[in-house]
């Protein structure tokens, strides 16, 4: 049945390109992270696997706010997105022949270089370059939605990223069983390059450059390290407390998530192809949930969804710990899959609400900067969580470490509930379809 032209669902070119860039960029990242965890976990310890996640989070911590501030000051969003995309692709080249690179480094340096350290270094360098992608694209999505449709627009963008994460994790399980490590990373580099091509075609709505920024380095430094009297924007509606909650919650999820590929394969005894399918339950579920919950965030408010999402993240750690007691491989896979569906609901609510909150309270020409700080806040937990959970798992085992990590997410929910004030603007029709549309 053909719908009248005026009522046909429409996805304009801009939305399609943003979606393609998001899907391919996140697919490359998921392929890389999962493949590296399995490759290192085959011969290394839980702590060495955790170092991969720590290196990635350090790159995000240091550079997400830098790229965001740089974009706000110069207005050059597209240039930053393309340049960092090319840098991320080039950073992957040592993985194609990691043993040879380690041998060459050992011949030059006075110590023997373990290939694991090359893999950790590449993971961190990759993060340095892709750190700008999330904050800048979230800013684009936030601006497209406007005050009344911000949650739905951000949720739509997050649905694209969830689809990419699911594709990457599912595909990694297939590639790990079919290809040697070097060939896996050739595929990752090809997907990363396709993401750069896609983002070059996106119109990110470059911001107006700041005319007061006489010295670019000085202006960026003042934004990242504001003086005592210039930090008021960080206390608006409890924004700083939200950042703290994001860090604590991420420590739980990153700590557990960094070890899950090895836990699934080595401890639960599931095949690698099953691992990829189980890991994909989280992003595949997010693909539908992100868009739906974006509308709920617009209608019901930011704070309730953020608090609910942080509390739900604690449940994920407890369910993952319980999987070891399941009778048989299929039952264990089902328990882990249930945990990932729970995490999908929790993260979709929390992150969509958090991004909308930042968009609500951000001063003019500082939105990308504060989006970057949100990514940095999460990445602080991404550094602490894997190290802490990896250390506990090495001594006490995976289930104990996963259960202990859940306490941090519960603490995060309490902080947000007590210290963060609702930011949803009073816009007529918000969440009802009468707000500003997300599409151009």
TrEMBL record:
Residues passing through the membrane, by range: 16-37, 49-67, 79-104, 116-138, 159-178, 184-202, 305-326, 332-358, 370-395
Domain of life: Archaea
Keywords: Membrane, Transmembrane, Transmembrane helix
All residue ranges annotated as the Major facilitator superfamily (MFS) profile domain in the record: 1-424
Keyword Acetylation attached: no
InterPro entries linked to this entry: MFS (IPR011701), MFS_dom (IPR020846), MFS_trans_sf (IPR036259), Sugar_transport-like (IPR052528)
Protein name listed in UniProt: MFS transporter
Organism expressing this protein natively: Halobaculum roseum
């Amino acid at each position: 049945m053909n719908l009248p032209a005026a009522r046909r669902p429409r996805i304009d070119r801009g939305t399609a390109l943003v979606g393609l860039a998001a899907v391919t960029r996140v697919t490359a990242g998921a392929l890389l992270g999962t493949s590296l965890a399995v490759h290192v976990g085959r011969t290394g310890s839980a702590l060495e696997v955790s170092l991969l996640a720590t290196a990635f989070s350090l790159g995000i911590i240091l550079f997400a706010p830098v790229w965001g501030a740089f974009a706000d000051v110069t207005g050059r969003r597209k240039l930053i997105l393309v340049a960092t995309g090319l840098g991320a692709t080039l950073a992957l080249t040592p993985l194609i022949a990691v043993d040879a690179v380690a041998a060459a480094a050992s011949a030059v340096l006075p110590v023997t270089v373990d290939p694991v350290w090359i893999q950790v270094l590449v993971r961190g360098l990759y993060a340095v370059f892709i750190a700008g992608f999330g904050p800048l694209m979230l800013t684009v999505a936030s601006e497209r939605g406007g005050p009344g449709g911000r949650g739905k627009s951000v949720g739509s963008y997050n649905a694209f990223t969830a689809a990419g994460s699911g594709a990457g994790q599912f595909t990694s399980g297939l590639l790990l069983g079919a290809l040697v490590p070097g060939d896996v990373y050739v595929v990752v580099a090809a997907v990363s390059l396709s993401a750069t091509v896609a983002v070059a075609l996106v119109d990110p709505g470059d911001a107006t450059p700041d005319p007061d920024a006489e010295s670019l380095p000085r202006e960026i430094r003042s934004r990242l390290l504001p003086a005592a009297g210039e930090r008021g924007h960080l206390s608006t509606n409890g924004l700083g407390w939200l950042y703290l909650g994001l860090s604590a919650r991420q420590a739980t999820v990153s700590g557990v998530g960094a070890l899950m590929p090895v836990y699934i394969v080595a401890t639960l005894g599931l095949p690698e192809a099953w691992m990829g399918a189980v890991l994909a339950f989280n992003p595949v579920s997010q693909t539908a949930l992100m868009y739906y919950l974006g509308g709920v965030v617009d209608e019901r408010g930011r704070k309730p969804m953020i608090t609910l999402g942080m509390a739900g993240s604690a449940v994920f750690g407890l369910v993952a710990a319980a999987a070891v007691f399941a009778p048989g491989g299929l039952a264990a896979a089902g328990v882990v899959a249930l945990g990932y569906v729970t995490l999908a609901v929790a993260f979709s609510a929390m992150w969509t609400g958090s991004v909308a909150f930042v968009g609500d309270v951000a001063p003019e020409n500082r939105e990308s900067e504060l989006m970057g700080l949100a990514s940095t806040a999460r990445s602080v937990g991404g550094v602490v969580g894997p190290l802490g959970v990896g250390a506990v798992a090495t001594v006490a085992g995976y289930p104990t470490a996963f259960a202990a990590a859940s306490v941090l997410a519960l603490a995060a929910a309490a902080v947000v509930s007590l210290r963060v004030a609702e930011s949803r603007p009073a816009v007529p029709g918000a969440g009802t379809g009468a707000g500003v549309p997300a599409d151009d």
